[in-house]
């Protein structure tokens, strides 16, 4: 059975792939050589499960997506006071490569080039003649940190590194401007070299999604379980990404997409839903701001269709499945005969009950659906008790109904224990809502098919119906 989330990601990538606007970055010669058709999407949820579509295994250079990571490393090493003395946290409202400082002669934030170069300089020793070996050692530590965030060893693209170093006149001007203001305490050339190297690390969209989820999880890598950075640093990084990560397009991004994010001129976008998931997108055609055209479109769809805007006021419970058990503890109906009793005594483990709790939005529904899908070969009937669910949003409701229809097609059955009519009420409220997500399943499109799954008052009622369903399958009329 194809996952509902996989099906949706296939649907959205097919839709966004049609946009051929924008152009690859040509001011760095090596980047001008990339395939403009490349397009990959990855989503990593809080437990480390990754959904990938398209060119998710294609490596590209991280470029400016490195900026929040180096900023996190500097905060971890030096502390807030020392870093804040040198670098502001205010949106610049200017292009990423603007030669820009505030009234205290600080770069306005660490997401523009001036701030990123100064951040890199702060990792180096405060001397005017930094040995190449020292830069190598600091870079090795930086790569180790990035790799810990991604959950695998990352490596340098030497061709891109050489190309950036050979054509970086504007960045060199920025570095020496900062040096003239007295805010760089080290060798400007060493700072530039470290900055060019960090931008030239190879990543995939899977890597970006895991990095994003590591930050979303308060610094814990969901794949390795390792605490890579502390929660306070993760919080600061998310805050600055929210206000400054998309450069002079940050305001529109926050209002329409609502995810802390960082783009890179290599075509990547990293987006994060705090506490829940990380998103990595790759498509090298860029808009006038230097952001991936398809990447932005993809993130808009994900945010709108799946309700991922960080200011979505629906509460979220990560512990969605309260308990799982079969129906062995329920009594067989007294009026059933010996054949029915014999069958149910041997097959009752083919009916499984899942009790959910909390509030159900995309993240919780995804986790529950993945558990259901993993059990499908072992059960004929799934009973889903949502009596402890407080809120179910349109996205989660659509996912549940899609899952019910998918089971119907397999000759299996899903039933809801919904004594308060939460799902029915949700369908009634949103039946004609033109903003509902199109999850690429005909039964769940706008103008929803009015056939609802069976809604029962209690688990016992559902068990009786489930047993009757099994008997019908075993002993057809």
UniProtKB/TrEMBL annotation:
Residues given in the record as substrate binding sites: 64, 113, 164, 171, 195, 247, 265
Enzyme class, UniProt record, top EC level: hydrolase
Reactions accelerated catalytically: L-glutamine + H2O = L-glutamate + NH4(+)
Gene3D superfamilies in UniProt: DD-peptidase/beta-lactamase superfamily (3.40.710.10), STAS domain (3.30.750.24)
Residue ranges of every copy of the STAS domain listed in the record: 351-466
Molecular-function annotations in GO: glutaminase activity
Listed Pfam families: Glutaminase, STAS
Domain of life: Bacteria
InterPro entries named among the record's database cross-references: Beta-lactam/transpept-like, Glutaminase, STAS_dom, STAS_dom_sf
Family named by the database record: Belongs to the glutaminase family.
Subunit details: Homotetramer.
Name under which the protein is recorded: Glutaminase
Gene transcribed to yield this protein: glsA
């Amino acid at each position: 059975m194809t996952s509902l989330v996989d099906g949706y990601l296939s649907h959205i990538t097919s839709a966004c792939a049609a946009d051929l606007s924008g152009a690859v970055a040509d001011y760095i010669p090596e980047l001008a050589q990339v395939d403009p058709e490349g397009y990959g999407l990855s989503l990593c949820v809080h437990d480390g499960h990754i959904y990938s579509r398209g060119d998710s295994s294609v490596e590209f250079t991280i470029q400016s997506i490195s900026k929040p990571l180096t900023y996190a490393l500097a905060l971890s090493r030096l502390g807030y006071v020392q870093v804040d003395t040198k670098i502001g946290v205010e949106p610049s409202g200017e292009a990423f490569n603007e030669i820009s400082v505030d009234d205290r002669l600080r770069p306005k934030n660490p997401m523009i080039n001036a701030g990123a170069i100064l951040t890199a300089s702060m990792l180096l020793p405060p001397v005017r003649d930094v040995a190449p070996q020292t830069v190598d050692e600091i870079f090795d530590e930086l790569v180790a940190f990035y790799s810990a965030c991604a959950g695998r060893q990352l490596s340098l693209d030497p061709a891109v590194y050489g190309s950036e170093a050979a054509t970086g006149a504007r960045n060199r001007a920025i570095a020496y401007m900062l040096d003239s203001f007295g805010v760089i305490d080290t060798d400007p050339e060493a700072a530039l070299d470290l900055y060019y190297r960090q931008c030239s690390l190879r990543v995939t969209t899977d890597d970006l999604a895991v990095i994003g989820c590591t930050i979303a999880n308060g610094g814990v890598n969901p794949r390795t379980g390792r605490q890579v950075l502390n929660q306070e640093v993760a919080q600061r990084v998310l805050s600055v990404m929210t206000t400054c990560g998309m450069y002079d397009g940050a305001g529109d991004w926050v209002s329409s997409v609502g995810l802390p994010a960082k783009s890179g001129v290599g075509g990547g976008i990293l987006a994060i839903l705090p506490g829940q998931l990380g998103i990595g997108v790759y498509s090298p055609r860029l808009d006038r701001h230097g952001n991936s055209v398809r990447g932005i479109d993809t993130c808009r769809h994900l945010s709108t269709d799946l309700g991922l805007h960080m200011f979505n006021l629906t509460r979220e419970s990560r512990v969605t499945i309260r308990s799982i058990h079969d129906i062995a503890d329920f009594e067989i109906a007294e009026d059933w005969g010996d054949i029915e009793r014999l069958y149910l005594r041997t097959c009752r483990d083919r009916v499984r009950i899942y009790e959910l709790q909390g509030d159900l939005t995309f993240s919780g529904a995804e986790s529950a659906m993945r558990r259901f899908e993993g059990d499908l070969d072992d059960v004929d009937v799934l009973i889903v008790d949502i009596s402890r669910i407080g809120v179910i949003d349109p996205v989660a409701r659509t996912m549940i109904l899609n899952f019910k229809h998918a089971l119907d097609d397999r000759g299996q059955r899903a039933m809801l224990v919904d004594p308060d009519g939460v799902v029915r009420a949700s369908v009634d409220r949103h039946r004609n809502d033109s903003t509902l997500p199109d999850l690429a399943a005909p039964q769940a499109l706008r103008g929803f098919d009015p056939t609802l799954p069976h809604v029962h008052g209690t688990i016992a009622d559902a068990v009786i119906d489930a047993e009757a369903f099994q008997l019908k399958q075993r002993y057809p009329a």
